[in-house]
Design a protein that fits this description.
The chain starts with a strand and ends with a strand. It contains eight helices and 20 strands. The chain has two domains: 224 residues, Rossmann fold; 125 residues, RNA polymerase II/Efflux pump adaptor protein, barrel-sandwich hybrid domain (OB fold (Dihydrolipoamide Acetyltransferase, E2P)), CATH 2.40.50. By secondary structure, the chain is of the alpha+beta class.
């Protein structure tokens, strides 16, 4: 039995459907992420799990028990917000111990749990400090400790790293992974940051306009998106309109208007005449002068229109013969100069026959 089950849940605000008949199952000890653009319904789901909001239809079950009618303070669920929501007049220790005080825990139990929680987030030495004396990352760790001190079944995290700068955010991602693994509590994480979701999660639910587009492990979401929206939302990707010429168990033969034929991995349900999108990641696209990529089954001439040097890689944008643009990554791992092609250079781009994925319309 899953720890948390969301069954056919709908939430409306007037005529606006924020959550549209969603069903999800989340396992005990899982780091589960709700990912999507602003307004897709992910925070509304979090609020309904916490009990701050109620569904108009459907059920939310924890350990098989319907949470309907259970107020937020009675649920074994805690929430960590982006704003930290720390009490400025309380020390770190008092902030973390506040839920224990509300639960009327004994002095001995409070001391033990407080010590464990502060140790888990490496803030034992900051116990007497006040929030204004802490860095952003330390404040976030205090909020995490306060969320965990009552040993909830589920910790809800609503964009908890959104207020941090890029470097600190990356450090906190590693801390979150380690913390979740060490405490074993189920984390349900809300974010619109795709890279963050891929780095942190055991599984991700990609949401769009109140619905779930796809639930999968990060590597499968990235490599095998099931819709054009998921492909485009997760990371950078090239999307080429294509039509199926031949479909076998071993491959698809596609045609791209104004460009020609190409070979793609097989797809169940694809049939000759079917239209859709061929999606391929920039790191799967090779770029070279004419003789360098012709051993690949799929290769096409083009012209470099832009390039972006990013240190570890250079990103090239290439205009193909039919006017379509395609992006290719070239690692800068060779010693010496990193820039290999200039704007206006004629090049050839190509990719393996088993790379990319065809998406039905």
């Amino acid at each position: 039995m899953p720890l948390l089950e969301i069954r056919n849940v709908t939430r409306r605000f007037g005529d606006f459907v924020a959550v549209d008949n969603i069903s999800l199952s989340i396992e005990s000890g899982e780091f589960f992420t709700l990912l999507g653009p602003s307004g897709c319904g992910k925070t509304t789901i979090l609020r309904m799990i916490a009990g701050f909001d109620l569904p108009d239809a459907g059920q939310i079950l924890l350990d098989g028990q319907d949470l309907a009618g259970t107020p937020p303070e009675k649920r074994p669920v805690r929430t960590v917000f982006q704003s930290y929501a720390l009490f400025p007049h309380m020390t770190v220790a008092q902030n973390v111990a506040f839920p224990l005080k509300m639960a009327r825990c004994s002095a001995d139990e409070t001391r033990q749990r407080l010590g464990e929680a502060l140790e888990q987030v490496h803030l034992t030495d900051k116990a007497p400090a006040y929030p204004h004396e802490l860095s952003g990352g330390q404040k976030q760790r205090v909020a995490l400790a306060r969320g965990l001190v009552n040993r909830p079944s589920i910790l809800l995290l609503d964009e908890p790293l959104g207020a941090l700068d890029a470097k600190l955010r990356e450090e906190m991602q590693i801390e979150l992974i380690n913390l979740q693994r060490d405490v074993g509590v189920t984390f349900i994480f809300v974010t619109h940051a795709q890279v963050e979701a891929l780095a942190l999660s055991h599984r991700i639910a990609v949401m769009r306009e109140g619905r779930v587009e796809q639930v999968d492990e990060p590597a499968r979401l990235y490599a095998f998106p099931k819709s054009r929206f998921v492909a485009d939302f997760i990371g950078h990707i090239n999307l080429l309109d294509a039509q199926v010429l031949e479909a076998t168990h071993g491959h698809l033969r596609l045609t791209i208007a104004g460009l020609g034929e190409m070979i793609a991995p097989p797809l169940a349900g694809a049939a000759p005449g079917g239209k859709g999108t061929f999606a391929i990641r920039p790191e799967q696209v090779r770029i070279g002068i004419h003789g360098e990529v012709t051993e690949l089954k799929n290769h096409f001439p083009g012209e470099v229109t832009h390039f972006l040097y990013r240190g570890d890689v250079t990103v090239y944008k290439v205009r193909l013969a039919n006017g379509m643009m395609i992006e290719a990554l070239l690692p800068n791992s060779a010693p010496g100069g990193a820039e290999l092609f200039k704007v206006g250079d004629p090049v050839r781009v190509g990719w393996r026959h088993d790379a990319g994925v065809f998406l039905h319309e």
